[in-house]
């Protein structure tokens, strides 16, 4: 029997992108429980090592990636910006997509009250949102959702980890926004 942890590590290193845990388990002829045990051990080992790489869970997928502590040095080598600059408008639109997905452009614009073409296109360009398909409605509008890059960027492994916003909090936010709007008049 081969070392399954070494095989998992080799697969993740070679694939580069996030790989479904179930797909790895099937390839290595492991049960879900055996796979979870092996991957959890690997994740813990990488966390405890003073190394520049780690294994990250992204939903039901796993990916080998650079530890955040190494980003500054990596950026010096690659000469790429650290992160895309997200404006308040982009963050607002991204939050709508994250919490309401699947969501159409029309839904986003109804919530925001303004045209959102530019912002949606930028979020698509940054790979933070993606097209999930088309709605079975007149005009068959495109529906959007978040991507694995969104999860990685915000340090969560699934949408379920996003903070819960209660109806009361939404009403408080609305009231604060209305008060701020009145101050600006």
Pick out its properties.
single chain; 185 residues; alpha+beta; Arc Repressor Mutant, subunit A; three-stranded antiparallel sheet; 15% strand
Descriptive report:
The chain is of the alpha+beta class. The protein folds into two domains: 4-71, Orthogonal Bundle (Arc Repressor Mutant, subunit A); 88-183, Winged helix-like DNA-binding domain superfamily/Winged helix DNA-binding domain (Arc Repressor Mutant, subunit A), CATH 1.10.10. 52% of the residues lie in helices and 15% in strands. The protein has nine helices and six strands, in the order αβααββααβααββαα. The N and C termini lie far apart (73 Å). The mean pLDDT is 86.
Offer a concise description of the structure.
By secondary structure, this protein is an alpha+beta fold.
Number of continuous helical runs: 9
The helicity comes to 40-55%
Strands of the biggest beta sheet: in what spatial order? 1-3-2
Largest sheet: 3 strands, antiparallel
Number of domains: 2
Give the total of beta strands. Answer: 6
| Overall body shape | elongated
**Relative strand content:** 5-15%
Please tell me the overall pLDDT.
Answer: 86
Q: Could you state the order of secondary-structure elements as H and E?
A: HEHHEEHHEHHEEHH
Task: List strands and helices in order, with pairings.
Elements: H1 4-15, E1 19-20, H2 21-27, H3 32-48, E2 53-58, E3 61-66, H4 71-78, H5 88-100, E4 103-104, H6 105-112, H7 117-125, E5 129-134, E6 142-146, H8 148-153, H9 167-183
């Amino acid at each position: 029997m081969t070392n399954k942890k070494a095989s998992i590590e080799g697969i993740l290193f070679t694939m580069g992108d996030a790989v479904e845990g179930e797909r790895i388990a099937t390839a290595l002829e492991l049960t879900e429980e055996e796979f979870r045990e092996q991957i959890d051990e690997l994740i813990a080992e990488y966390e405890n090592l003073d190394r520049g790489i780690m294994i990250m869970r992204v939903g039901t997928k796993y990916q080998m990636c650079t530890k955040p502590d190494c980003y500054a040095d990596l950026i010096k080598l690659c000469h790429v910006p650290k992160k895309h600059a997200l404006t308040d408008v982009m963050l607002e639109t991204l939050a709508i997509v994250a919490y309401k997905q699947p969501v159409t452009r029309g839904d986003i614009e109804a919530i925001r009250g303004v045209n959102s073409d530019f912002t949606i296109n930028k979020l698509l360009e940054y790979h933070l949102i993606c097209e999930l398909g088309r709605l079975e409605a007149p005009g068959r509008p495109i529906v959007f959702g978040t991507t694995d890059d969104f999860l990685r960027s915000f340090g969560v492994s699934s949408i379920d980890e996003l903070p819960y916003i209660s109806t009361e909090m939404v009403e408080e936010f609305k009231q604060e926004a209305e008060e701020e709007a009145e101050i600006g008049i």
